[in-house]
Description:
Elements: H1 2-28, H2 33-43, H3 52-70, H4 75-102, H5 143-164, H6 168-183, H7 187-196, H8 204-223, H9 228-253
Helix pairs in contact: 1-4, 2-4, 3-4, 3-5, 3-6, 6-9, 7-9, 8-9
Amino acid sequence: MEAEGLGWLLVPLHQLVSWGAAGAMVFGGVVPYIPQYRDIRRTQNAEGFSTYVCLVLLVANILRILFWFGRRFESPLLWQSVVMILTMLLMLKLCTEVRVANELNLKRRVFSAADNKDGEVRVPPGQSFLDFDPHHFWHWSSFADYVQCVLAFTGVAGYITYLSIDSALFVETLGFLAVLTEAMLGVPQLYRNHRHQSTEGMSIKMVLMWTSGDTFKTAYFLLNGAPLQFSVCGLLQVLVDLAILVQAYVFTRYPLKPAPHAAHPASAKAL
């Protein structure tokens, strides 16, 4: 009798835990960016945050959604990608607005010039409507340019996936590229910190949440039998997070002495 009563209690409890874990997977990935978003909004300085983090996550999650069409995996992982894409677009919008507001005499860099407000198309000298100059890529001055780039990538990748969806090799490679790209999430921030020999402007809370979230996510993959690509790349992601935390400790304990007449941090271009 007691066993039956205990079973009656454990079934809904197990269901609640499952729902909680699924909810954490869907929304937990965006939580680390809340303190960074608030810091940028409060200080009106986005130099400490690499927008290439947004690029990595946008590419990774678009590829993951396309992978789902070839090999169905758990719905929480699919919805996590949708929520993350929307979050990265919000981060890009804020960073672009802040950077444009802070930089004087900003040279117009566009993915296309179709949204020129006065109706007159003005192309900077030596640049075309489609500016794929590596020095300017992902450093445009309009949020619409980023949206157009993301839509173009989604369209091309989606078309290739549609044509190759019946190939098991293609689908598995697509899944591997999706999670491997996501595993490289912290690399732009890692490189930026190394280049500047500083973590100033980077939210330590964000990185700590990255680490805890990636650890939880990797455990979730292992326990729920997700495709092998997810687990391997999740472990790699945790290692990159730990490397960034080591940078934060080293650069805080042994700060680089500023050079004479150094430019103000807000005027320096972040990666």
